[in-house]
Design brief:
signal; Membrane protein; about 160 residues; 5 strands
Length: about 160
């Protein structure tokens, strides 16, 4: 039983670190490779804002891997002999699925779909993570920074 508790603690720690490692999708966050790169600046007015949910990671191996380890440890403590092998495998599979779902839920973010009217009259839309529960509002004057396929909206 203590192995199960230890495994659960390890899973929680790994998922917490994985959540911290997720790249921020706000307008104020930059990756290291984005620093010192040229960005094209445009100005616009927010036409409309719609709250959206940005789905969590489902491609990460951290949640599934940690869940499989914990599930395998838990399964191995059930039964004996051949039964123990079967419950180890079943525990690992179930733990992997549960870990993946936990990782998706913990990495889900509140977003906003912004419809913007550029100064040249063009209407564009972008989805961006909400930072500190502060939504843009219709009528706000904003700055748009573009670099390749990446766009961010700031004040």
């Amino acid at each position: 039983m203590s192995r199960l508790i230890s495994g659960a603690a390890i899973l929680l720690a790994v998922l917490t670190l994985a959540g911290c490692a997720q790249q921020s999708l706000t307008g104020d966050a930059y990756s290291r490779r984005e620093a010192r790169q040229v960005q094209h600046v445009q100005y616009a007015v927010v036409d409309s804002v719609r709250p959206v949910v940005i789905e969590g990671r489902t491609d990460g191996v951290v949640g599934a891997g940690a869940g499989a380890i914990v599930g395998g440890i838990a399964g191995s403590s059930i039964g004996g002999g051949r039964g123990s092998s079967i419950t180890t495998v079943l525990g690992a599979v179930a733990g992997g699925i549960a870990g993946q779902r936990i990782e998706e839920a913990t990495s889900r973010r509140q977003g906003q779909e912004l419809t913007l009217r550029l100064d040249n009259g063009e209407l564009i839309s972008v989805v961006q993570e909400v930072e500190n529960n502060q939504f843009f509002r219709a009528g706000d004057r904003v700055r748009i920074l573009r670099s390749g396929a990446t766009m961010r909206v700031t004040y």
